[in-house]
Amino acid sequence: MNPVLLWFHTMGSPPSFYAFAGRCLPWLYGIAIPMILWGCWAGLFEVPADYQQGDTFRILFVHVPAAWMSLLIYGVMAINAFIALVWRIKLSEQLAMNCAPIGAAFTALTLLTGAIWGKPMWGTWWTWDARLTSELVLLFLYLGVIGLYAAIEDRRAAARAACFLALIGFVNVPIVHFSVDWWNTLHQGATIRLFGKSSMDPSMIAPLIALAFGTKLWFVGSLLARTRVSIAEAERSKDWVHRALRARA
Amino acid sequence: MLSVRGLAFARNHEPIFGPLDFHVDAGEAVLVHGANGRGKTTLLRVLAGLLSAQEGVVMIDGEPADRHAIARSCALLGHLLGHKGELTAEENLRFALGLFGQRQGQSPTSALAAVGLGGFEDSPARQLSAGQKKRLALARLLLVPARLWLLDEPYANLDLTGIDLVNRLVGNHLGRGGAALITSHGAYATGAVRTRTLSLDPQPATAAEAVDG
Amino acid sequence: MADSSAMTAFSALLRRDLLLVWRRRGDALNPVLFALLVVTVFPLAIGPEKSTLSLIAPGVIWAAVLLAGLLSLDTMFRSDLEDGSLEMLLLAPQPLALMLFGKVLVHWLTTAVPLLIAAPLLAEMLHLQAPLLPVLMLSLLLGTPLLSLVGGVVVALTVGMRRSGMLLALLALPLYVPILILGAGCVAAAAQGLPYTGALLLLGAGLALLIILAPLATATALRIAMT
Q1: Domain locations in chain A?
Q2: pLDDT tens digit string along B143-163?
Q3: Which helix (H) or strand (E) holds B73?
Q4: pLDDT, tens digit, for every residue of B17-71?
Q5: Cβ–Cβ of A235/B13 closer than 8 Å?
Q6: How far apart are CA A240 and CA B2, in angstroms?
Q7: Phi, psi of C94 (to 5 degrees)
Q8: How many DSSP H helices and E strands does chain C contain?
Q9: Would you state the torsion angle of the CA atoms of residues C27, C28, C30, C31, taken in this order, to the nearest 10 degrees?
Q10: Shortest CB distance from C1 goes to which of B74, B78, B145?
Q11: How many CB atoms lie within 10 A of CB B70?
Q12: Above 0.85 for ipTM, yes or no?
C-alpha cells in the first residue's frame, strides 16, 4: 500500500492518533506562539503608521488573519464532515466537531476587531458592510453546528447531524456572500468598504504573514489537542485510554 | 425467510445487544425474551430498518437486505401505533394502503371486521380506546402485503379476548406462509403454532435458542 | 398482493395531510395572525408616517412572512413524530424524498398560501406603493416555497427535540438569509427604479434546483436524526 494512504489509515485508529497528536503538539505550539507574539509586537510597534488611517489600521494585523482563519477552519470542518458522513470515520467526526468552537472563536474575533476598527473609521461600532455581515452569518453557522451537536443525546448521531449541517452551511456560505454583496450595492450605492485599498507598505507584510502562519499552526495545535481529549472521552471504556492516561501520570 | 448473522448494536459506545445469530423461517414465530433494557425493541427496530447495526448482516430470502427489501417484506407494530387521531379508522387504513400496497383479498372493511372493529369504520381514531387502537394497528398488519411481522409488545393494552385475537391473527398469518418476530415481557404461547424463543438476557454463549412447544 | 406505486403513495400522503389540515382548520390561520401582529407592531413602534412606512413596507412584510413561516415549521413533523406516522413513512417502501416533498408541499399550501392571500392587506396597512405590489407578490410566490423547502431540511435535523425553537431559528437563519435578501431586495430594487428581474430569476432558479435537492437533503437529515 502507498505509504501516504497507509499513514492515513493508521491515523484513523484512535490510539495512533492520540500518540501522534501528543508528539506534534509541543512543536506546533512551540512555533505558533512565538510567531504570533512577534507578529503582534511588530504590527503594533515596528511598522510605521498608515498615512491615511494613522495607528488604527494596526487592527488589520489581528482582523485579517482572524478572518482568514474563520473561513479556513470552516473549510477544514466541511472536509472532515464529508469524510465522516461518507466513510463514517469516527476520527473525522471528532475533528469536524472540534473545529467548530475554534472557528467560532476566530469569527467572533473577526467581528470584534471589525467593530473596533469601525469606531474610529466610521464613528459606529457596527456597520453592515458585506464582509462583516457575511462573518456574522458565518458565526451563526458555527453556533448552529455547536448547538446541534450539543442538543442530540446519542453522540454519534449528534456528530452526523452536525456534520450534515456543516456541509449544508458550506454550500450556503458562497451563496450568502454573493447575496450580501448584492444587497450592499443595492442599498448604499457606492460600496462602503471597511478596509480601503491603501497600498501595503512592505514592512507590513512580514508581521501579517507571521500572524497568518502562526494562527494556522495554533489552530492545528488546538484542534489536535481538543480531538485528543474528545476521542479519549469517547473511547473511555477501552483499554488503550487507560494505558495512555497512566503513561502520562 | 429472515436470517441474521453477528448482529450487534451499540449506542454511545454502550453495547445494547449482540452479536446475535438467528433465523426465522416461513410459518414460524420467534418469541424474543429479555428483561427490560435488554434491547428487544431496539432489535426489532434494527430489523425493520429504522436503525443501523454496528456489526452483522441481515438477510432476507438469502440476499443481504437493503432498505427497500426490508420495507417490502417487513411490517413493524411498534409502541407508537401510527394512527392520526383526526382521521377515521377507515381513513387511517386507506392511507396505509396507499403507502404499503394491499394484500390480496383484504380490504379496510374486511380487516376491521377481522379484528373486531367492524362498524367502527367512521370513528375518529382518537375516540377509540387503547385496546381498540391496538386492534386498528393489527388491522393494518392484515391489510399490508408484508410477510414478516415484527411485533413489539403486541399484547400490551389488550384484554384476554385481545390477546386471543393476536394469537389467532399470528396463527393465520403463519398458516399463510408468513413469519413473525414477537417481543414480550411474559411468554404467551401461540398454541398450535411453531414457536421458538430467542433470549436477549446474558448467556454464556452469544445467543440461546430453545425450541418450545 | 399489490404493491403501491410512488405516485399513489404521494397522492395518498397529500390527501391525508390536506384532510388533516381541513379537520383542524382553525390552526391554519395562525401564521396569518402572526404576520398581522408583526405588521401591526411596526407602525406602533415607528410611527404612522406614511412615507416612512411605505419605505420599510416590503422589508417588513418579508420579515413577517419569514418569521411566521419559521414559527410554523415545527408543525411539519411534530404530530407525525408523536403518533408514530413519521416512523411509518420511514418504513414504507416508497422514496422518502418524494414523501417528504409531499409534506413540504402541504406545509407550503397551508401556511404560506394564506400569507400570500393576506399580503395585499398587509401591503395596504403599510402603505406599500401600488406599483410595487406585483413585484412583492411575485417575490413572495417564489420565495415562500424556498423557505418551506429549506425549512424542511432544518426541521428534519432537529426532529424529536423537545424545545428546539431557538435552535431551529439559529439553524434556519443562515439558510434563509440569501432568500430574504433576494426576495426583499428585488422589491427594494424595483422601488429605486433599478432592474429587479435578475433577482426574481435567481429565486426561480433556486426554487427549481431546491425542489429536487431539498427533499433529498431532508430525507438524509431525517434518517440521521431518527436513529
Answers
A1: 28-47+56-190+202-248
A2: 999 889 999 888 887 888 888
A3: helix B67-73
A4: 778 888 888 888 888 877 776 788 888 888 888 888 888 888 888 888 888 888 8
A5: yes
A6: 38
A7: -130, 155
A8: 11, 0
A9: 150
A10: B145
A11: 22
A12: yes
Decide if A113 contacts A122 (C-beta within 8 A).
Answer: no
Residue C88 half-sphere exposure toward CB, CA atoms < 13 A = 29
Mutation target to probe the B interface, by most B beta carbons within 10 A, among A149, A154, A156, A235 is A156
Q: Is A161 on the interface with C (CB under 8 A)?
A: yes
* Bond prior to B19 in cis (omega within 30° of 0): yes
Specify the 3-state DSSP secondary structure of B58.
Answer: strand
Domains of chain B (ranges; CATH) run 2-86+145-212 (3.40.50.300)
Nearest residue to C178 via CA among C138, C206, C155: C206
CB A108 within 8 A of CB A139: yes
What's the grid cell of residue A236?
Answer: 473511555
Measure in Å the smallest separation between the Cα of A124 and chain B Cα atoms: 48
* Residue extents of the structural domains in chain C: 6-225
Closest CA relative to residue A12, chosen from A123, A89, A106, A105: A89
d(CA A131, CA A79): 23
In three-state form (DSSP H/G/I as H, E/B as E, the rest C), the secondary structure along A66-125 is: HHHHHHHHHHHHHHHHHHHHHHCCHHHHHHHHHHHHHHHHHHHHHHHHHHHHHHHHHCCC
